[in-house]
Every structure is written in C-alpha cells, then in structure tokens.
Amino acid sequence: MYDLIIIGGGPAGLTAAVYAARKKMNTLLLTKEFGGQLMWTKEIENYMGYQFISGPELMGKFEEQVKRFAVDIQYEEVNGFVVNPDDTFLVKTEMKEYQSKTVILATGKRPRGLDIPGEKEFTGRGVSYCATCDGPFFDNKAVAVIGGGNSAVQAALELSKIAHTVYLVVRNNHYIADPIILEKMKVATNIIEMLGYESEGIYGDEVVEKITIREIATGKLQDIAVDGVFVEIGLEPNSEYVEDIIRMNKRKELMVDCRSRTNIPGVYAAGDITDGPDKQIVIAAGDGAKAALMAYDYLLHKE
C-alpha cells in the first residue's frame, strides 16, 4: 500500500514525484515513458531559468532530479482505476495491480487525429504527429502541415528548414497562434499558406503521395502532391481510464478545484489533463507540486 501513486511521466507527474519524496511519502510513479509532449518540442524559450532549451533536454533534467529521490518508478501503462470500499485506490496496468491511499492523475494529452481517409493507413508511412521526431526524414521534400495554432505554425517553421516546400493548411481564415511565432513564420520563403481549407483525404500507394483539401467557401477540391503530412490540430486528454469515475468537462478534461482536488477525496489531477485554461510547461509543473502537497495534507489530516 503506497501513500501516493502518480500516473504520468511529464512535467506535472515528475514535479509531483519530487515534492512527494521530499515529504517522505512512499511514492510510486507509473508511466509508459518519460517526457510526454515535451519530447516532441524542439525549442522552449519561456521556461524560467533557461533562455533556450529543447524539450528532450529539459525532460532529461526533470528525470535526473527525480532519480535522486527514493521514488519507485515502473514503466507501465495504466488501464484501470478503482475506488476501494475503504476509500483507498486500486490502479491497474497490463502487468500488475497497485494499491494506494492517494492518487495524482497526470497523464496529459495526445495528438488529435483528422479522422479522414488514409490517415490511419499512412501513419508511419508519411503521416506524422511530431515534426521534431520525423521532420529529418523529409529532407528536400514537399510536406503539408494541418492546423492553425502554435504547434502547427511552429511545425511549419521547423520543417521549412528541412523540406523544400511546406503547405500550411488552416481550416479558418485566420491563425490562433501567438504573434511572435507568426512573425518568425513570415520570414520563411518556402511556406505556402492555405487559409480556409480543410483536409479531405490522404492518398498514395506504399507511402503518402498527395493530400486532398477542400476550400470551405466554395467547396472546390484540390490535390497537393506531398511526401508527408504533419497533423497539428490540437490534443485530447488521456483520461479514458477514469471515465465515469472522475468528473470531466465536455472535452474529457478532469475537473479540479484550486487545490487540485477532483470529485473523489484523495484523488488529485495535475497538468494538461485538467480543465485549467492554459496548457504550459511551467503551469503543469506547478500543478504537480501543488497536487503532491495537497495529497500530503490529505493524509496528514486523515491519519
């Protein structure tokens, strides 16, 4: 029986682990892998203490710090969660079952798919959700980036230094990206902006050869010859394992109060999986610290 089980290995989960360990809580960290979304991030300029650092570098520092403490780490994916009759908790993975007095849910989010023909079939064969990971495979080739937010514009900018042509397909007639990122993008001469278009299908034989897009205003279809399609249309929470147990909003984010508490006493949530309004590394880390302190306070008063 652990004092605390932390589910998730991103900034929220790892920060929670450090704070829990400093409180001498018997802690288990369950994660499929370290890093979360940060492992796809090439450039970070707004994490205090670093004028510039890459996502993998920053997560390496997080991991190094966690491993200085007595935290039990198991690399397993959680697929079940049960509230026991005695108000403790059972956490299930494919390999084992674990018991705990408190739990922090910090499993973050994953890329949202386009749900169009060819997307699943060509994933790994031209369709990607990570420009940082897969961009180098498209040296001097044509690619499309789908999306109009920060991640899409950043991906287009990153790919413009590798591919010979980048088509940026935006559903709206405007971007929802930060001005500073848009300013950088405007400098690139090989990014072709396609505003007011949505994706209809991805086609090819063994690998991606073209994407079909539709102009929303006219309904006109257009084929673009590309070797790769990078999907950057947002994220969805990894919250299925607590569905019908933890209260969620319509976006399937976990609803928490200002003390990181969910609707179940002893269960806390932190980071991008919550209904907090902004998704930032520093906010996720702060959430993790707060959730660990609240879990400690809960046990202190309960005992």
Automatic annotation (TrEMBL):
InterPro entries: FAD/NAD-bd_sf (IPR036188), FAD/NAD-binding_dom (IPR023753), Ferredoxin-NADP_redctase_2 (IPR050097), Pyr_nucl-diS_OxRdtase_2_AS (IPR008255)
Record Pfam families: Pyr_redox_2 (PF07992)
GO molecular function, one term: oxidoreductase activity, acting on a sulfur group of donors, NAD(P) as acceptor
Superkingdom assignment: Bacteria
Cited SUPFAM superfamilies: FAD/NAD(P)-binding domain
Domain FAD/NAD(P)-binding, first and last residues per copy: 2-278
Keyword Oxidoreductase belongs to the record: yes
UniProt KW keywords: Disulfide bond, FAD, Flavoprotein, Oxidoreductase, Redox-active center
Keyword field contains Oxidoreductase: yes
Listed name of the protein: Alkyl hydroperoxide reductase subunit F
Record organism: Pelosinus propionicus DSM 13327
